[in-house]
Amino acid sequence: MGVVTLEWPSDGVALVTMTNPAINNHGSFAGIHELWQTLIKAREEGARVTVLASGVPGHWFEHAWLRDLSNRFQRKEVTGPSSGWFGCLDELSKTQVVSIAAISGDTSGGGCEIGWACDLRVAEEQVVFSQPEVRIGVGTGIGGTSRLVRLIGRTVAAEMVLDGAPVKAQRIYDLGGINKVVPQGTAVEAALAWAKRMAGHPPDALAGMKRMLAQAEENPLTDAIMNDQKIFQEFSGRPAAIARMEEVQAKFDAGAGIRETYWPGEVEQ
C-alpha cells in the first residue's frame, strides 16, 4: 500500500497528501518517488492547481529518511530510486500546474526544499522550518540553500544552513518566504480555498503566467522580459482571452472600478 493519495476537492484542483506515520513523513526514496508519480498523474488528469498536504499530525514533509540516504552512499539497499527528489522539484516549479504547499506541521531538510520549490506556501502559525543538514554532517542537496537565499535573503538563510537553526513560520513570512500564516489546523482548508479561486481563472492565462514566473527566475532581466512577451503573445490573443477582455471592459464601461471588477469583497474599503 502506498503513502501518497490523490483527491479532487474541486474542478481543476488536486489535493496530494503524503501519510507515512511510521517514519513521521521523512522522505524515504520510495515515498518521494510515489509523490513524484502522483504529481505527474494529477497534471495529466487535468490539475490546474495542486495542493501538497500531510496526513501526519505535527509533521509536514521532513528531511530525507537517513536510512535510505546513508545506505545510498554505502551502496546498500534503499527503498526506491532517488530520482524522485528532482522529479518532484521539476513538477512543482517547472510545469504549468500551480503548486501550493499547505504546511500543517514542522518541516525540515528535503521537506522544506519541496516547499521552497512550490509557487505558493501557506503555513500554520505553530510550524517550525529548518535546514538541519549541517548538524547531520551533510549538505542541502536540492535547493535548501540556493532557493532559500532567493526567498528570504542571505542573512537568515545563512543562519538556517550554517547552524541548522529552527525558524518559526511568522519569521519566514516576515521575510517573504511564506504567503500566508494561518491558525493551527487550517492550512489545507486555506490552501484549497485559494486553489479553487485560482483554478477558476482562464486556464491559458494561469498556465502562461506560471511559465512566465518559473522562467523569470532562470533568465537575466532583459531576457526575462523578452520571454514574458513571447509567452504573452502565445495565449493573449486567443478567442477565450478576447472574450474575457470584452467582458471586463464592459464592466468598466458601466462605471465599475478595479476593486469591484477584479477583487469583489477582497479589499477592505
Descriptive key words:
alpha/beta; 13 helices; 2-enoyl-CoA Hydratase, Chain A, domain 1; globular; 269 residues; 15% strand
Structure notes:
The strands form two sheets. The protein has a six-stranded mixed β-sheet with strand order 1-2-3-4-6-9, sandwiched between helices. Strands 5-7-8 form a three-stranded mixed β-sheet. The protein is globular. Helix 1 links the parallel strand 2 (13-18) and strand 3. Helices cover 49% and strands 15% of the residues. The chain is built from 13 helices and nine strands. The protein folds into two domains: 4-199, 2-enoyl-CoA Hydratase, Chain A, domain 1 (Alpha-Beta Complex), CATH 3.90.226.10; 203-262. By secondary structure, the chain is of the alpha/beta class. It has helices at residues 29-44, 66-73, 84-94, 109-117, 133-136, 146-152, 154-163, 169-174, 187-199, 203-216, 221-235, 239-253, 258-262, and strands spanning 4-10, 13-18, 49-54, 98-103, 107-108, 120-124, 128-130, 167-168, 180-182.
Report a brief summary of the structure.
The chain has 269 residues and is α/β, with parallel strands linked by helices. It is built from 13 helices and nine strands.
